Structures are given as C-alpha cells and as structure tokens.
C-alpha cells in the first residue's frame, strides 16, 4: 500500500445520494463498504465529514441569521452525519470512534490528539465531528488541521467529480482534467480545491491532497494502493 494513515474528507452533500436533503441510507452504506475495503487492508483511517446536507452556516448567514450561530448549527450537522457514518461502518463490522471539537459527551469523545492517534494504532476508524470547533472555519480546514495533527500521509477528498479541472466539468463537457498539479499552480490558475485557509495549511505542511470520485466503486481502495485516480496536488 502507498499510504499507511489517511484522512478522508467527505462532503455532507455526498450523503444525500438522490435525495434533496438529509441522509440517503443506501449511499452511506455504500460509502461504509468502500471504507471497509481500505480498513481490511490494514490502513489507518480518519474521516472528516461536512454538514451541508443538513445545514450550512454561510447559507443561513446570507439570509440574515447570525453567522456565528449558523456556524455552530453547521457543526452540529456534521456530528449528525458522523453518527450516521459511525452506525453504517459498525453495521459493516468496522470499529469506530467519534470525536468532536465541541463537547457532546453523551454521544462522542472530545477531540484529544493522543487519544485519536491511539485509536488509529489500535485499528479503529476515527471520525472527527464539529469541524474545528470554531465559527468561520470550514470542514475543509478541519480536515487539513486534523490530518496534520495525526500525521496523516495524505488527504483524500472524495467528491462527485473525478478530479480537478480547469473549469466546472458539470457545466462544461470540454473542461480539461489535471492528472497532477502543484500547490502553486492551483493558486495561479485560481482553481477551487479547498478554501484558501485549508489549502494554505496543507501547502505549508507539505501534505498532499488527492481529489477523486468517491461514488465510483473501488476508487477509494485503488487511490490508497497508489493507482492514478483523480488529481493529486503536491509541491
């Protein structure tokens, strides 16, 4: 295997499947099965999941809601998704721990770096909920922060497109895909991979990002094996 410890970033919207909002049980079970393949190969897995399928703070703020309140609501949405993914993984015989950046001790452990690392070493999948625990930071930022803290080898960003393009491939069929690209070129070309805070943190810590299609069967395990799938962002 090319990587020993990965941080998988999933968007909340990905959990909707064919629904307009909420969590599609079929989609989340399929994700759990893909993650299990990687787990069974002995790779240590940490996961950060968004909350956009339930609530997005920025969207609430644009309609007059207080941004800080909206962001905390978004954090709680990520915890709901974390609980759903935890349940789906355990239904597939994958041991997990859910850690949150804001204390909700009845349902999850508080995030403690050493404890998270120990869980990974003991063969448990660790799901990180509630983002960074701070308003104004996205779950992309949380993904990079947690990846750096646990010394992950790579960030795998599972999306609904198969990599990074020069234009939106869902709007322009002739958009050109990059097989690999440097951090500097992403910035120069103004490509949207992650928000600027997350992307800069990843660049400063020399932590590669691979953007790939999570909805294609076996893509996740093949990425971990080092096969050329999606787009790799590196120095």
Description of the structure:
The structure is a single chain. This protein is α/β, with parallel strands linked by helices and 235 residues long. The protein has a single domain (5-234), classed as Acetylglutamate kinase-like (Carbamate kinase, 3-Layer(aba) Sandwich), CATH 3.40.1160. It has 8 helices and 11 strands. The protein has helices spanning 25-40, 57-62, 67-91, 113-121, 139-149, 183-189, 196-204, 219-224; strands at 5-10, 44-49, 96-100, 109-110, 125-129, 154-159, 164-165, 177-178, 180-182, 209-213, 231-234. The strands form 2 sheets. The chain has a 9-stranded mixed beta sheet, sandwiched between helices. Strands 7-8 form a two-stranded antiparallel ribbon. Strand 1 (5-10), helix 1 (25-40) and strand 2 (44-49) form a beta-alpha-beta unit. It is globular and about 50 Å long. The model has no long low-confidence stretch (mean pLDDT 95).
In short:
38% of the residues lie in helices and 20% in strands. The protein has 235 residues and is of the alpha/beta class.
Q: What do we call the CATH topology? A: Carbamate kinase
What is the SS-derived class? alpha/beta
CATH C-level: Alpha Beta
Number of helices, counting only DSSP H or I runs of 4 residues or more: 8
DSSP strand count: 11
Helix residue percentage: 25-40%
Second-tier CATH architecture: 3-Layer(aba) Sandwich
CATH superfamily: Acetylglutamate kinase-like
Rg calc: 17 Å
Relative strand content: 15-25%
Stretches with pLDDT under 50, minimum 5 residues: none
Provide mean pLDDT, rounded: 95
Q: Kindly give the count of domains.
A: 1
Large-scale geometry? globular
Order of helices and strands: EHEHHEEHEHEEEEHHEHE
């Amino acid at each position: 295997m090319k990587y020993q410890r990965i941080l998988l970033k999933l968007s909340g919207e990905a959990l909707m499947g064919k629904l307009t909002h909420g969590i599609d049980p079929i989609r989340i079970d399929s994700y759990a099965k893909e993650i299990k393949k990687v787990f069974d190969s002995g790779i240590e897995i940490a996961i950060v999941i968004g909350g956009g399928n339930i609530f997005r703070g920025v969207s609430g703020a644009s309609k007059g809601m207080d941004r800080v309140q909206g962001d905390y609501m978004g954090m709680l949405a990520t915890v709901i998704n974390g609980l759903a993914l935890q349940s789906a993984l355990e239904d597939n015989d994958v041991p997990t721990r859910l850690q949150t950046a804001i204390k909700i001790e009845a349902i999850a452990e508080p995030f403690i770096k050493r404890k998270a690392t120990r869980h990974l070493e003991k063969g448990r999948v660790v799901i990180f909920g509630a983002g960074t625990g701070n308003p104004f930071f996205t779950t992309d930022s949380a993904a990079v922060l947690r990846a750096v803290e646990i010394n992950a080898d790579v960030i795998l960003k599972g999306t609904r497109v198969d990599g990074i393009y020069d234009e939106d491939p869902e709007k322009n069929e002739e958009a050109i895909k990059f097989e690999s690209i440097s951090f500097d070129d992403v910035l120069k070309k103004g490509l949207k991979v992650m928000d600027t805070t997350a992307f800069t943190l990843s660049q400063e810590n020399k932590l590669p990002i691979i953007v790939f299609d999570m909805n294609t069967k076996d893509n996740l395990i093949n990425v971990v094996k080092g096969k050329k799938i999606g787009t790799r962002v590196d120095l």
